Amino acid sequence: MNIYRRFIEAAEKLKRKTAKENYTLRLAYLAGVLCLAGAMSSCEVLDQEPQAEVSEDIAISNKKGAQAALAGLYDQLQSGNYYGSNLLIMGDISSDVAQSIGTWDFYREMDTYLIDKSNLETGNFWTRAYRAINVANNIIEQVPPLADITEEEKNKIIGQAYLVRGLAYFDLTKVFGGVPGVVGTLGVPIITKPSRKVDESFFPSRASLEESYGQVESDLLTALEMLPEAHQTDLLTRSQAVKGTARALLSRLYLYLGKPEQAITYADAIIADPKYSLVASFANIFSSKFTTEAIFELNFNSADQSGINNWYYPSSLGGRGDIMAHTSFYEEATADPNDVRGKMFGYYQSKDVHYPTKYGKTSAIDNIQIIRLGEVYLNRAEARAKTGDVDGALADLNTIRQRAGIAPIEGLTDAQEALRAIWHERKLELAFEGHSFFDLVRTGQALNELTGIPRTNGPDVNLADPARQVFPIPAFDMDANKNLVQNEAYK
Amino acid sequence: MKHLLLIFFLTLSVPSALSAFAQGRTVTGVVTSEADGSPLPGVSVLLKGTTTGVTTGLDGNYQLTVPVQGGTLVFRYIGFQIREVEIGSQSTINVSLASDEKLLKEVVVTGYGEQDRKTLTSAQTSVSSEEIANLPAASSDQLLQGRAAGVQVASNTGTPGGGVFVRVRGSSSINGSSDPLYVVDGVPIQANNLSGIDLGGGTTSPIADINPADIESMEILKDASATAIYGARAANGVVLITTKRGSSGKAKVSLGMYTGIQNAPRLPDVVDGPTYERLMNEAFINNGKAPKYANPDGAISTDWADAVFRTGKISNYDLSVSGGTDKVHYLVSANHFNQEGVMIGSDFKRNTARVNLDFYPVDKLKVGTSILYSRNERNRLRNDDNISGAMPGTFAFPANLPYYKPDGSYTKFSIFENPIAAVKESDIQMSTNRFLGSVFAEYEITNGLRLRSSFSLDNSTVLEDLYDNTLLNNGAGTNGFGLSLATQNDNWIQENVLSYEFARNEHSFNVLLGTTLQESAFSMTQAVGEQFPSNDFRKITSAAVQRSSSNASSWGIASFFTRIGYDYKDKYLATINVRRDASSRFGADNRWGTFPSVALGWVVSEEAFFEPMPDFVGDVKIRASYGITGNQSGISDFQALGLWGGSSAYADIPGVSPVQLANPDLKWETTAQTDIGLDLGLFNNRVNIIADYYVKKTSDLLLAVPLPRTSGFNSLVQNYGALENKGFELAVIADVIKSEDFTWNANFNIASNKNKVTKLAAPFNVYNRDLFRYEEGYPLYSFYFHEQTGVDPATGDIQFADVDGDGEFDPNVDRKIVGDANPDFFGGFTNTLNYKAFDLSFFLQYSYGNDQLNWNRFFSEHGGVRDFNFMKSQLDRWQKPGDVTMVPKMTAANYAGNLRPSRFLEDGSYMRLKNISLGYTLPQALVSKVGISRARVYITGQNVFTVTKYTGLDPELTGIGDNPLAQGIEFYSLPQPRVFMGGFNLSF
Fold this sequence. Notes:
The structure holds 2 protein chains of 2 kinds. By secondary structure, chain A is mostly helical. Chain A contains 21 helices and 9 strands.
């Protein structure tokens, strides 16, 4: 402020010197005023506050903040990088269910088993899943001390955070780690504290595959303990985590871990739960919202925008039309003319290929089925077959076949044959819901099944390298974190 | 605060403060040129020590009222020596002025002042209004191209009014902005792209709001001595734009007009229908499949480019009236500029009005205003990195498809939009209203001591409307899609500058003290509509689904600055600058930064020992400067804070999630620049050489340091990393021929800048497919590719360099930096010739040694793995053993999705005849009969021809506008237009 003082002094000097000249005096006076005003407002000018964001310290400081953070957590799952479209496409395009026919090389890389560690979509999934984990970690750490929430309410919120974190680690581990006994020994880095200040914790190593799945299991079990059976409304019960969500995911998890008994236990609980029942019309699961089939259905409105319709629908219908069904899969799905699931296709005439119509709503408001009852039946069928209960397995399988409008399979006694039938059913039932590739890897079929797959705009492709049953750790984190070890096929 | 200022200025203008001027006597006379005795119009005649003055008329006559006794008249005219004559008792004073041939005597605008070039210690280049007059450019920043050594200018797009890439002495930042600071009539203006609609990366230039014809001069401040007075925002250089002002004398009316046509010099080089089908068949056969097309010879051939490119019109009208009395100087001007882009649906229209006034209400006091109101309208297109654009469609749509289906609807293909639909159905409008105005008062307190205060506003309102009807892919899925955006950017700036010039014996000093406050607020409101009743309804009010949002942000900066200039006998020169800036963007502990600079100059030719030098050596000056400047741009307003944002709703439940990590230590990016320069006059100073060598070291880069994303964050903006720019600049300005009837002035400049990242936390890749890599030891804009070594002549398979030397090529690891977008050297060459009444100027502009990525070719030379049209370069493919080519056999493996072959990286060197203009000035005798003082007609060509090996549409296209880290890439952008036009200038 020295300059201002000098201005004032200069002005006063002038005042004495040129007192006769009225205007000069006035000017000098005003110059002084101006300087003072300037000095005062310089502080104002420097005090700017964000208007669209809040400080991290106050984001979760009360009940409202905790609830908003929880919504922000589900928002991560909604992202097009994750369940909004990407993870589903990754699961189907890496299999023989969906194929890339457009310009987007990243899915073409997956389609043709030439995936690169710089693959954008792989990186997007990794980034988004860990964002979800960070939000969950914030909730898990910051909600317990809050004063304005009841214990019950806290459990409800924290339980959901555990569930989403468990789901994210599950997805990360199956994509980048592998399946015990099939492929991979390394899991993914496990982060359980919120990220605030850059320190060593920002540069983790990969946990072992067992530790990774162990984290999934413990998060889901903690969630199961804390979550309520239901939320206030049916919509919330199906669009946010409840005990049923945890049980359903556990029935899936134990198939990955080769523990069929536990898978059966949790599947039993779901199938016995009166909230959940198969809907008669298969198409309704997708054309309606929140049917009784839905266990965890991500809710989208026109502001959220699930992007999956855009990838599968041709440009004449407002989509990008980059990803289509493999013609071989279309033929497989329509082999039985009675199969209602074979009706869920459209024909893209100018390309002579078919596309799935599971996601057919305009304005990108298709909901996404993270887990639904149909899968749980098939989880139990598979687990039962594994434990030698072939009859029980066929009963579950035929429940699903019956709903699809096709004849039951009867008279099978061999558990392996039953498993093959169940796996085939799984492929048809859950097509375009992001399961196929991971199911093939989990069941050890990938290297056999994924050979000689004909593509519309290229030669046949094969998954020849067993090490390519897992995706590469994204290049940006390999660059940024020296503690990470790359998967074998991408070194 | 604002109220107080208002009172201040209201009070200043109170007429009661004005004292009547004493009555006097009248002096008249004629001012002529000493050389030929011809009358000199426009000479400033001033009563010394006052602001009383006039300018001479057309015949060199003047008339001035002076006090009854005493007084001295000062005669000033650009290019002539100043003369002072004591009035004594004379009533007629005729004066002849001697021309001043010394270039170094010209007065140039500097930061917060003006200075005789002779005593300038800094590196700065002037671009005068003559050089840029009557050129068909929407935006003045484009006009700097090739004019100033070391200033690199390129275009992101040929779309009228589109964003421009300007670098002064290289890029000095990675995440921060590397754009220079623009200062118009002393006001640092808002120069960021304000368009909020992403049409594929194309940006708009806010400098286009200014009418080029209003510009008196542009000064590019390059070294730290010139820029440090702008402190924290000066690291990328400063462009000072000074607009024209009135001067005493009779009203001068200038009318200018030009009109012309423009088209694209090159169109997409794609194959015809039969060739497309034959090539596709070849790919299918090579991939072991049956041919796709049965009868390629019968295919139709559609020329998609023909349907969307056009010959556009360009026209410009300028009118200005300027003049003044001894109390008031005025200039008012109006401009209308209209440019149709080379593609249907892209237009730019500008209307501006300017009022620049200077009042001398009382002795020693000057108050004035500079006011610009500008309104722009743009019709915009999706293009660049956007699959819905017309340009992508023009490249991609196979030539064997018709424009329309048999039912009359648009043919649809793949993910792309039908180009005709893209230009005709999409409705994207942007209008900008900008007010840029300042009021100032300047008072000479005592002889040489002045106080100047100013208050300025720079307000922009941008309204954008986008409507996609159901005939477009974008609108089909949502039954019509509408987007409406209002963006407001408000800046105010208050400055006070106290300056004092004095001399003691042969020591001259000028001292400056100043303060600045600036506040900038941004706000945006957006509405989105879907589900429209029909294509006739375009406003969101009719949409069944409506969404909206709004956002706001702000920043402020407070500064003190000082400068001390010193010279001894015009021989030893020194300048010291210090600026202290505080910015709201940084943490409270790191707000203040100090930016000093020092410069020394030695006019060797003034030394006695210089006498024996041969005659052809004229003025010689050696300059050296060192200083530190800063950069605070390119980061968000609240980058230092750990923030959670609110736009994370889950369906109808409002949600929050983390946006960024806190970094309370965040501070300025700092650039230390050393400059050594030589100004040399030869042959009576008819040849002037200006040479500079500089080293710019930027440290504490505002860098988004990549974090392991397992943290939930991609990066943390830190002051981490360093880079340097080193280069030399050479400008040669020569009056090659100077005779009565024939003059030839040549202006050549060349510059080389070597840019290198010297410190980085970890290498990182940017842009789709990781095309660019930032790594220590490499320049910015380095391309990251698989180095293609050739094609096996025996098999036709693509061959790559085995980077890790393990004996086989693996796309995951064998990727490396294979080039960069920075030129080895670049510059321009201007020639101006006058023969009697004819004038001819031509301007060549060049860039050498830059790599340019032809990304269009990557998509269109696809070997059959995509189904879009081929570029003709595909015809060079390997077909049979023995073929030697870089384009491999058309198999899926050779064009696999994970390959980034370096063959698409081309030599981007070019030389372009940017401008050629031929003019004729009508004989004065003829035009004066109709009251015209000067009339000139001219024809001009712009981008007339280009010499380059680059095969894309335009080697000058540099980037995807919204990603400053990706430069040297052409990706579905419109090329610079070739313009032919004619026009005239009249003055009365």
